[in-house]
Amino acid sequence: YSRAFSTSAALKTVIKNVTVIGGGLMGSGIAQVAAATGHNVTMVDETDEILSRSTAAIERSLGRIAKKKFADSEKAQSSYVSDAMSRIQISINPVAAAKKSDLVIEAIVENLEIKQKFFTTMDAAAPSHTIFASNTSSLSIGEIASATKRRDRFGGLHFFNPVPMMKLVEVVKTPETSTDTFQQLVNFGKALGKTTVECKDTPGFIVNRLLVPYMMEAVRMLERGDATAKDIDTAMKLGAGHPMGPFELADYVGLDTTRFIINGWAAKFPDNPLSNPVSCLTN
Ligand code: 3HC
């Protein structure tokens, strides 16, 4: 890696070895898609037990995709699954994983202090060419990056649940993200087969800035007694063509994550009515 320490060499780095931190819904989805598109992936979480659940979920999801992709060949289905699985390693040691990574993608709990602490540790361990990215839904990438000395090699890669099916990745640029880093993140998103959009580091980027207030407005509508949850969901599916209604979607994203997002925004932007907390998610 000696070449990679200079800026010009960093330009040429092609992301091949990826560490995904967090084996939850998002982390395992990101690990799956990265492996299925030929990247070497290390998926990290706190225990082997969590990681074996994550790998089982990945294997199931790959199987569903393989059935559609290679409908007429069981052999092709099983080699699609086993090829992707063979590119995924699991680890409970993020520092060791970071040492051989071109890119570290963090998908852990939506808490600024925990993310900052994590990245400070990773910053000391990872090679200098390694790019850091967070999959945060709602926190500032710049604030997370401020816990490291590689703010130029730090950006956002925001994926959507279910990661294997959703075609979008938001690529987030802070004022300090270098042009090379941003371009590499965009290239990586495309290498995963996703469409990328460029976002500034603003709360919720594009999708969640629109989607979360919409879900919260649905909850307020329910709390006022204007309509039932079932009717609100039906209305948005049949009247606006959404694949899921707002309540179904909040469940699908996870009420824990939805709550972290809205409570975080309510505390940080108390004067913005879009981030008003809703009573059924505040406790
Ligand atoms: N893995 C692999 N394949 C999957 C899958 C998964 N996890 N989920 C769905 N599929 C595929 C399968 O091919 C499945 O067919 P199968 O059951 O025969 O295997 C096919 O999709 C159809 O799935 P379903 O019949 O279960 O249901 P749908 O047709 O409704 O599709 C959906 C499921 C793609 C999840 C669709 O309902 C949808 O797009 N929902 C909205 C999701 C959304 O808005 N996500 C964004 C949330 S916001 C977010 O994530 C940001 C965060 O920061 C909060």
UniProtKB/TrEMBL annotation:
Residues engaged in binding CoA: 61, 68, 137
GO MF terms held by the record: (3S)-3-hydroxyacyl-CoA dehydrogenase (NAD+) activity; NAD+ binding
Reaction(s) this enzyme catalyzes, per UniProt: a (3S)-3-hydroxyacyl-CoA + NAD(+) = a 3-oxoacyl-CoA + NADH + H(+)
The protein's annotated pathway: Lipid metabolism; fatty acid beta-oxidation
Keyword Thylakoid: no
Matching Pfam families: 3HCDH (PF00725), 3HCDH_N (PF02737)
3-hydroxyacyl-CoA dehydrogenase C-terminal domain location: 204-273
Keywords: Fatty acid metabolism, Lipid metabolism, Mitochondrion, NAD, Oxidoreductase
EC number from the UniProt entry: 1.1.1.35
3-hydroxyacyl-CoA dehydrogenase NAD binding domain: residues covered: 17-202
Name this protein carries in UniProt: 3-hydroxyacyl-CoA dehydrogenase
Native species: Pomacea canaliculata
